Amino acid sequence: MSIEFFTRLPLHGETQYLPGDPRNRGDWNRGEHSTGAVSNFRVGDHFTYIDYLGQIARAAEINGFGGALMVNAPSGEEPWTVCSLLARETRTLKFVTAFQPYHYTPWVAVQQAATYQRASGNRLVWNIINGGSDAIQRQVGDFSGHDERYERAIEFLDVVKGYWHNENFHYEGKYYRAEGGGLRGPLKKAELPLICTAGSSIPAREFAAKHADYYLMRAEHPDEVRALISDVRERALKYGRTDIRFGMSIDVITRETEEAARAEAKRFFDEGIAKGAVKAVAAHAGLRTARKLSYEQGYAQKNETQGFEEFFIYPNVWAGFGYIGIPPGCALVGSYENVVARIREYNAAGIDLFFLAGYPHLEEAYRLGEHILPHFRSERAELARSQDSLPELRAVNGPAGA
Ligand SMILES: Cc1cc2nc3c(=O)[nH]c(=O)nc-3n(C[C@H](O)[C@H](O)[C@H](O)COP(=O)(O)O)c2cc1C
């Protein structure tokens, strides 16, 4: 089985969710002093937070990461804009931008993506986000219900793929219509962005089953990862699809020895606890999923004074980050050797694409590049487009095959 490594960029601050850690970069902090930066971080300064993100992106590229995930939160930097700004500062790094269809029309998305692809050498990947929480959706102006958002997104991608692959595309759906239109001229040379998506609700899985090249998940116990993979694979089969692939986002705290790695994780944990960043934060932080993962359900019973060790849900898989409110929630904690072994285990469970990151992202990109990624050199493979998720001709006439 092939394997590929991407990282994740901190679009809402280096240690924004890590109270007590002084290593902030830029102006994303809670009023404490930033360390190491020369700027006042005012609009118009010569050095901005985006410059720091640029440093991480370049470090990731230099250290052999294939791409970077840009997560969207209403309070964070806007991911597709960051991708655009960083594309020209990098050469090969792919950018997986959170992409929320409800903020766009299919045509605007197609035109923007085609231009981006031409400028960047086809390095854009869309992570289609449909939003787990109705409350957060309403804050940003989307008043449709959870399941309806997925129904609409299925049509959205039907239309996007239709426009992309036809010069004269017609569509009559519940949410979208098109009468002619489609990529023409030089824009036609661009490749459709690869499609990732996440979400563990049934509509999210169905959406992935139909449209995604990669279904992304947060780390859980390997048994739960296997179960989710097998469910989504089965759903994809209904659409005649056999080649959907899987990705996982997980933080990494790794050192030469098991003890050193645990000491670093414990430092984060203790600082988080000391600052009171528990439970309430954990319940609301992160990726706003409708489904609580099983380790999150156990948080209510946990007593932080007992501690750190209880949060290992599997050897080297530590859910303490989620407890103190640091997304995505789980981290691989251990020696270089053991972290490599766990990655291999998740790979054997069906994960092709890993999003690995640590704190601070810049230094840890080097550590991962020097101590973890080289073990996988001969198995690395670029992201693959699913051959059976391309539009069928019936999409030209509408969703029902009218
Ligand atoms: C790797 C990964 C990245 C994600 N990125 C985002 C993001 O950028 N913005 C967001 O609102 N949700 C993000 N999510 C959350 C999911 O897209 C999804 O909205 C959430 O899990 C709720 O979906 P559900 O209610 O259908 O299960 C991400 C999830 C994963 C696993």
TrEMBL record:
Origin: domain of life: Bacteria
GO BP terms: alkanesulfonate catabolic process
Enzyme class: oxidoreductase
Domain (Luciferase-like): residue spans on this chain: 48-352
Pfam families xref list: Bac_luciferase (PF00296)
GO molecular function annotations of the record: alkanesulfonate monooxygenase activity
InterPro entries: Luciferase-like_dom, Luciferase-like_sf, SsuD_RutA_monooxygenase
Entry keyword set: Flavoprotein, FMN, Monooxygenase, Oxidoreductase
EC number: 1.14.14.5
Record family assignment: Belongs to the SsuD family.
Protein name, as recorded: Alkanesulfonate monooxygenase
Taxonomic source organism: Metapseudomonas resinovorans NBRC 106553
